[in-house]
Amino acid sequence: MSGANSSSLTPAFFILNGVPSLEVAHIWISLPFCLMYIIAILGNCGLIYFIGHEEALHRPMYYFLALLSFTDVTLCTTTVPNMLCIFWFSLKQIDFNACLAQMFFVHMLTGMESGVLMLMALDRYVAICYPLRYASILTNPVIAKAGLATFVRSVALIIPFTFLTKRLPYCRGNLIPHTYCDHMSVAKVSCGYVKVNAIYGLMVALLIGVFDICCISVSYTMILRAVVSLSSADARHKAFSTCTSHICAIIITYVPAFFTFFTHRFGGHNIPHHIHIIVANLYLLLPPTMNPIIYGVKTKQIRESVFKFLSGSKDWHSQEV
Q1: pTM of structure
Q2: Which range, 1-5, 88-92, 316-320, is most confident?
Q3: Which H or E run contains 268?
Q4: C-alpha triplet 12, 82, 92: angle, nearest 5°
Q5: DSSP structure class, residue 22
Q6: pLDDT: is 299 or 134 the higher one?
Q7: Which helix (H) or strand (E) holds 94?
Q8: How far are the Cα atoms of 62, 188, 275, 286 from residue 49, in angstroms, in the given order?
Q9: 59/141 Cα distance (integer angstroms)
Q10: Backbone φ and ψ of 176, nearest 5°
Q11: Could you read off the pLDDT of 278-303 as tens digits, one per residue?
Q12: How far, in Å, CA of 167 to CA of 161, rounded?
């Protein structure tokens, strides 16, 4: 086997097995996932539409929110339709290159989502700590460059995953006990040396996840200091309220993400494998589903835009003309 050519051990396709040990419950598992996907698509596309058409939402905070919504829609669309085909029609086969492409987009978009959350934290820091200079600091060119830099960072760091995974010999078969192609789930099917994959995955987690969380933590530390120093209780409440939506988005994004990451790499053998898979799916579906609801409920300007649209307000129609 050591003398075998790696390319001859590359399968034509993989078999995604869904949620192992819960195959009989696939239909029931698919129902909440399908509902969450519909809510995610409608909610995030709605946010993008309102931010694009409502003049009051043409501000840096909402531009970053639109970028987050676009990332969320693309992320869940990368995995959920294929997942539902597995649950509903037992269409478990995925081409080898299509699996690598899905793996790339899943990790690139989750890295992008983390980066956008960091940018949103920096936006709140500038808005609260430097309110008079907010518009001059976060200009449209600065916002565009920040978004582009986040995208380039994610692409540059995730592309090696594809090559590291493609080089591996797959002599243990082609069955992946998952609902989508995740980097370590694919690598573990290989009989080759996957320690490089694990180490590089850890490096990417540090360069994206840990770096972004450190920036978010520093931003909110500075925000907290600025808010506490405000003399008016009403001003403090208003400042805190502008951050609550973003804090909720951070929690629902990073908690399942870290659970998935650490159990993949550092054990978690006492946790049933189907729990790993379900949490990994929630890691991709929960933020896209909840973010529009959180921001829609907590953000006054978005609520007003939705109410105007639903009530057929003349002001809304006049903006459309």
Answers
A1: 0.90
A2: 88-92
A3: none
A4: 45
A5: -
A6: 134
A7: strand 93-95
A8: 11, 41, 36, 21
A9: 13
A10: -110, 115
A11: 888 988 999 999 999 998 888 888 88
A12: 10
The residues, ordered by sequence, that sit 6+ positions from 116 with a Cβ below 8 Å of its Cβ are 64, 67, 68, 71, 147, 150
Amino acid, single-letter form, for residue 157? L
Distance from C-alpha of 280 to C-alpha of 272, rounded to nearest angstrom = 13
Amino acid at 45: C
Residue with tokens 């609902």: 179
The answer to whether 20 and 274 have CB atoms below 8 angstroms apart is yes
Of 240, 207, 248, the residue nearest 224 (C-alpha): 240
DSSP 109-155: HHHHHHHHHHHHHHHHHHHHHSGGGHHHHS-HHHHHHHHHHHHHHHH
* 109 and 132 Cβ atoms separated by less than 8 Å: no
* pLDDT, tens digit, 9 for 90 and up, residues 218-273: 999 998 888 888 777 777 777 777 788 888 889 999 888 877 777 666 655 677 88
82-112 exposure pattern, b = at least 16 Cβ within 10 A, e = fewer: bbbbbbeeeebebebeebbebbbbbbbbbbb
Name the CA radius of gyration of the chain, rounded: 22
CA distance 50 to 60: 14
pLDDT at 316 over 60: no
What confidence score (pLDDT) does residue 5 get?
43
Give the whole-angstrom CA distance, residue 60 versus residue 135.
Answer: 8
Please give the structure tokens belonging to residue 238: 């208003």
